[in-house]
Amino acid sequence: MKKIIMWMSAAVLLAACSKKDEQPEPAPAPGQDVWIRDLPAGEKAPGDPTGGKPDTLFFSFQTNGKVAGTAQWDIAFTGIYNSTIISNIQRNNWMSMQQQGYDAITGLPAADYKLSAVGSGNASPNGWFKYDINTHVVAALPGRTILIKQQGKTVYKMEMISIYKGNPKAPTVETPAPYLHFRYAMFR
Question: Quick one: where's region Disordered (predicted)?
Fold first, then answer.
């Protein structure tokens, strides 16, 4: 009898654990920062200055993570080092690049949501990074915040931080990439 109870208890425990692991993360509360760290975004050969072109990574704000390209995705990372961010315009998601720091944006700013892609480097108005041609290193530009308007109503602010594993202070061309580091918060 003790063995039967022990086996039944083990089965219930395992079933409870597996159900919990399958559930997606809850969507963040408005104003709460969500930090994404070391999100694998494809592979490149160490020392490859071009970054290769890894597979596109699709991201959902509702699940706080990767989703299949056929799923309900909000933004996608594509291009060299997966450094170009595109919005899912089929779901009426559009972006605006703000020349203002993430922490400085405390309320919903007036913005023109007409961008479907951001990411061009070297301080372009719609860029979030600088590419150093000598070191082949990508660095996030300070004072750049991406606003994403989802389905014409919910707005998220997002700051790209790094594309290197571990977010080192001084990455090199040998540092594993792309591993995305960014944070975001929902306005409403």
Answer: 21-53
Distance of CA 158 to the CA centre of its chain: 8
- 10-39 pLDDT tens trace: 443 334 443 344 445 566 677 899 999 999
pLDDT per position as a tens digit, 95-123: 999 999 999 999 998 899 999 999 866 66
CA atoms in the 13 A half-sphere facing the CB of 89: 9
Is residue 13 included in any domain, yes or no? no
Backbone angles phi, psi at 16, to 5 degrees: -65, -40
How far, in Å, CA of 32 to CA of 26, rounded? 12
pTM: 0.80
Q: Is residue 139 part of a domain?
A: yes
Q: Is the dihedral of CA 142, 65, 33, 164 positive or negative?
A: negative
Residue 23 domain-assigned (yes or no): no
Segments forming the whole domain that contains residue 46:
34-186
